[in-house]
Amino acid sequence: MLKRKCTEPELYELTYKCSFEHTRTIGKFKELDEMDMLEIYRMANEKEVA
């Protein structure tokens, strides 16, 4: 845990790494592409940091 909000470039880096450099999607129930992953990271980033 970081104890701070991520910057937008950090969110893009997380997405890039999660997608194995733009080569995969994730999920079995609903396939998630990079934009889906990025949106999830953005929503998590808006949560209050304890």
Explain this structure.
- There is one protein chain.
- The protein has 50 residues and is an all-alpha fold.
- It is built from two helices and no strands.
- It has helices at 8-18, 34-45.
- Helix 1 crosses helix 2 (34-45).
- The mean pLDDT is 89.
Features:
50 residues, 2 helices, globular
Radius of gyration: 12 Å
Shape: globular
Termini Cα gap: 10 Å
The overall pLDDT average reads: 89
Q: Helix/strand/pairing class, anyone?
A: mainly alpha
Q: Helical region count?
A: 2
The percentage helix is 40-55%
Strand content: under 5%
Number of strands: 0
Instruction: Identify low-pLDDT runs.
Output: none
Spell out the helices and strands N to C.
Answer: HH
Biggest sheet statistics:
none
Topology of this structure?
Elements: H1 8-18, H2 34-45
Give a quick summary of the entry.
The protein is an all-alpha fold and 50 residues long. It has helices at 8-18, 34-45.
